[in-house]
Each structure stands twice: as C-alpha cells, then as structure tokens.
Amino acid sequence: MMKVRYRRIVQILASGVLGLLGFSACSDENGVEEYGTPTISYTTSGLVTDESGVPIKGIQVVDNYEYAQPDTTYTDAKGEFTIVKGQVTGWKDENFKSYKIKFKDVDGESNGSFKNDSASINEMTLKQTEDKTGSWNFGSYAISLSKKLKKADGSK
C-alpha cells in the first residue's frame, strides 16, 4: 500500500515539473506563449476613391484572410482606412495568397452610390516591417493599396 502511494506522489511531482519545463520553453523573446503555431502581425491601410480620384467617405472595408477572423472598418473623410491585426495564427508560406479586401458602399446616396468591389493580394503592396527569423513569430507586415470604385448604375 505504501509503495503505491509513494509511486503516485512521484508521478504527480514529475508531471508537474515536466509540465512547467515544457510550457516555459515555449515563450518567444517577448514572453508570448507559442505552442507550435506560427504567428504574424499585419497592418493594412489604403485609400478609396471614385474613378476621378475623389476620396470616398463611409465605404465599408472588410479584410478576409483565411487564417484570421475578418475585420471591418470604414473609410474616413479622406477616403483612408486602416486595419491592424496582431499575432494572427496559422501563417503559411504562401504569403497571403488568399488575402482579399472587400469594399461595400453602405451609406446609401449620401456621397453617391458605388458598386461593391474587392482587391486581391496581387493588387496590394506587401512589405515586411519586422523579421522574426528563428522563432514562431514570422514578423510584421505592412499592406497598402489604393482602390477606385465605379459608380453604381443611375448614381449621380
């Protein structure tokens, strides 16, 4: 009976020590816990104009990267938008091959009506702003684009 109790105590202590050692070895230099899932951070910014180059306010902008929850923002009075994503998991080497931005006019006729549109990564500029080679964090990226939207049929 004493042998069984002693062995059980040793198992509990060994499991605790191994668990602590295993988890403490999974932090990067910033203290972010990393359990084998690659991550990146990125900021997407851009300008939305009509076909003549006039900035459009109030356009809904949705980023769509298959490894991150979609995020929505709206263009400001200057037609500009920014979407910031930190520590997105599931990074793959195809470097945003599936990344898209969707544009939708949701404010009605207040600034004219525009057709919905989208932009793929091929239409954007992708620049690495921070390199984290050697860790599970693949760094930070800045993505920029300018998009011209066409007027909807019958819009002034």
Structure commentary:
The chain has 156 residues and is mainly beta. It has one helix at 2-24, and strands spanning 39-50, 59-64, 71-74, 80-89, 100-105, 117-120, 125-130, 137-149. Strand 7 and strand 8 (137-149) form a beta hairpin. The relative contact order is 0.22.
Please give the structural blueprint.
Blueprint: H1 2-24, E1 39-50, E2 59-64, E3 71-74, E4 80-89, E5 100-105, E6 117-120, E7 125-130, E8 137-149
Parallel strand pairs: 1-8
Antiparallel strand pairs: 1-4, 2-3, 2-5, 5-6, 7-8
Q: Uncertain regions: pLDDT < 50 for 5+ in a row? A: none
The end-to-end distance, rounded to whole angstroms, is: 89 Å
Radius of gyration from the CA trace? 24 Å
The count of strands amounts to: 8
Mean pLDDT across all amino acids:
80
Order of helices and strands: HEEEEEEEE
Placed side by side, the strands forming the largest sheet appear as 4-1-8-7
Q: Which features characterize this protein?
A:
single chain; 156 residues; mainly beta; four-stranded mixed sheet; 1 helix; 8 strands; 39% strand
Brief digest:
With 156 residues, this protein is mostly beta strands. Helix content is 15%, strand content 39%.
